[in-house]
Amino acid sequence: MASPLQPREDTLALLSDLVAFDTVSARSNRALIDFAAARLAEAGIAAQVLPSPDGAKASLWATIGPKVDGGIVLSGHSDVVPVDGQDWTSDPFRVELRDGRAFGRGVADMKGFIACVLAAAPRFAQAPLRRPVHVALTYDEEVGCVGAPKLLAWLAEQAPRPAIAFIGEPTSMRVVNAHKGILVARTQICGVEAHSSLAHLGVSAIGIAARAITLLQTIEQELAAERQDRRFEPSRATLSINRIAGGTAVNILAGRASFDWDVRSIPGVDGRAVLARFEERLETKIMAPLRAAFPTVEAHTAVVADAPALAPEEDGHAETLAKRLLSTKETRAVAYAAEAGQFQGAGLSTVIVGPGSIDQAHKADEYVDLEQLGLCDQFLDRLAGALVSGG
Ligand SMILES: [Zn+2]
Q: What would the DSSP string read from start to end of 195-249?
């Protein structure tokens, strides 16, 4: 039996470098971005660093090869989830190699992929590519895919135009052509405070919130009846209320209440349309009748995050190329949300393909099998070969 494919030495060294940057979403990723830009510069590749609106974070964009349309984007998010409260065997921000695996925060999600891409960049730069490779690094993916839309808005103004995006989220190097979307919303309710012995003088914001939540649950049932997609588990769009707050005392009708909820949509269900359905009914069925007696009651819903689903493309270029490079005919769907739907929405043919398993992401002792990194190195080498031969 052949021994498992090993990653390149420079890939492993880069993984150690990347994991050592504590890029938990709440913190700045600038040091990692500057590091990546410097590594690309060493290979003669000019990277653009695109600061976030407040300057605390940044995206990176670099083009390798000819400045022509039709290039391939290799995209990864630079942020990671926190390690608070997790029981790690080793320091999460120091890569440890044990049992054919690399352990560390983000090795699967998704610094392993970024390490492979940065290690491959000098090889791309030396190859006579006929179409360019673009390196994209984003921020704030783990808090609702908030960073990628800014990069994509900038990209829309640039030339040349890339054609394909490979998003390197962990798929065990399988081709994923569908993921669920996520819309995160916060609904805030203003009622009218009154002593609970004089309940007729007020209206509880918590009571209104309860009715609004029941409305959301009704809409969830409607969505399930309207559309199912058996590729996903669960196969329907879900609508969950995940946090609630309100009230000030046991004997006062609550003046304020708020709740956070999310829509996990399947392709064909638009989170914004679900929100519009909710707001329309909340107004007509609940708020407008209440306002007749209590003119100051209010309900307001803010969108905290919005990332659309990734839908399978008919004869998609990204899917065709990824399958060819991996010698497979198989595709999969994943339940988690990712930036791929945003890239697809920006007009790029998009699939997810990356090393490691989502089962290990976000957990204590997150790991990636070294063989997975080796397979990703090989995938990128084959991509370079395809771009040289014009494929
Ligand atoms: Zn991720």
A: BGGGGGG-B-HHHHHHHHHHHHHHHHHHHHHH---TTSSS-S-EEEEEEEEE-S-
User: How many whole angstroms separate alpha carbon 46 and alpha carbon 266?
Assistant: 38
Give the distance (Å) from ligand 1 centre to CA of residue 109: 5
Domain ranges of the chain: 9-179+309-389, 181-307
Residue 366 designated active-site:
no
Q: How far apart are the first and last CA of the chain?
A: 32
pTM for the full predicted model: 0.89
Q: How many angstroms separate the alpha carbon of residue 113 from the centre of ligand 1?
A: 10
Q: Please state which CATH number belongs to domain 181-307.
A: 3.30.70.360
8 Å CB contact between 242 and 262: yes
* Superfamily the domain 9-179+309-389 falls into: Zn peptidases (3.40.630.10)
pLDDT tens sequence across 243-285: 999 999 999 999 999 999 999 999 999 999 999 999 999 999 9
